[in-house]
């Protein structure tokens, strides 16, 4: 990390920190004043998205269903598969709350980041104690991507959109598989809503 000077904020973005057991203690030991922003989305959609990304790199992997279940006939979910495990947000947050109070966290809705990017970015700016500079005038919705993009900045010829790896079409997953995963995540989601004081509307 570069040294943070007066009036500066140093930011670092590593999604795996939230699910890495050792991360909270290490970050606490580095700086207990660290503010933590966690972007979460429906864990079922997140698992399918994770699988889609892996599939694009390795088309020979087993089906989503084969990886998600230890036993399909009993409906037993395989929580050792990282695509499933990452979405058990309450468990990961428990680990972080041993070191940081809830006031150090901002939980950003991945769904609202798509439907109302300016609103969520407003919350981020408030949380960081920044002036609200990024507003809805900075975004437009890209129909092809299915995501909002940043309008081109002054002096630039093209808008900024998420890369090719974002907005891929998901493979078709059987409705019963999705329903079983929704049932599996429901109690964890409810606990996460209670812990954060935020209902993300996944259920």
TrEMBL record:
Family to which this protein belongs: Belongs to the sulfotransferase 1 family.
Cysteines paired by S-S bonds: 149-161
Enzyme Commission number: 2.8.2.-
Residues binding 3'-phosphoadenylyl sulfate, per UniProt: 41, 49, 166-170
Source organism of the structure: Gopherus evgoodei
InterPro entries: NST/OST (IPR037359), P-loop_NTPase (IPR027417), Sulfotransferase_dom (IPR000863)
Gene Ontology biological-process entries: heparan sulfate proteoglycan biosynthetic process
Protein keywords: Disulfide bond, Glycoprotein, Transferase
Residue intervals of the Sulfotransferase domain: 30-186
Database matches in Pfam families: Sulfotransfer_1
Lineage: Eukaryota, Metazoa, Chordata, Craniata, Vertebrata
Superkingdom: Eukaryota
An example molecular function term from Gene Ontology annotations: [heparan sulfate]-glucosamine 3-sulfotransferase activity
Protein name: Sulfotransferase
């Amino acid at each position: 990390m570069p040294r943070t000077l007066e009036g500066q904020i140093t930011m670092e973005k590593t999604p795996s920190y939230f699910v890495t057991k050792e991360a909270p203690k290490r970050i606490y030991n580095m700086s207990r004043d660290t503010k933590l922003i966690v972007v979460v989305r429906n864990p079922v959609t997140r698992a399918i998205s994770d699988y889609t990304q892996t599939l694009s790199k390795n088309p020979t992997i087993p089906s989503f269903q084969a990886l998600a279940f230890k036993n399909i006939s009993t409906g037993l979910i395989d929580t050792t598969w990282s695509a499933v495990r990452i979405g058990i947000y309450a468990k990961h947050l428990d680990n972080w709350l041993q070191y940081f109070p809830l006031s150090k966290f901002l939980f950003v809705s991945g769904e609202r980041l798509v439907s109302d990017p300016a609103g969520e970015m407003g919350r981020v700016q408030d949380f960081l104690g920044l002036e609200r500079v990024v507003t809805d005038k900075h975004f437009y919705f890209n129909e092809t991507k299915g995501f909002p993009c940043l309008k081109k900045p002054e002096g630039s010829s093209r808008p900024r959109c998420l890369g090719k790896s974002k907005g891929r079409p998901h493979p078709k997953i059987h409705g019963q598989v999705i329903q079983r995963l929704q049932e599996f995540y429901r109690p964890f989601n409810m606990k996460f809503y209670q812990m954060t004081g935020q209902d993300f509307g996944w259920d």
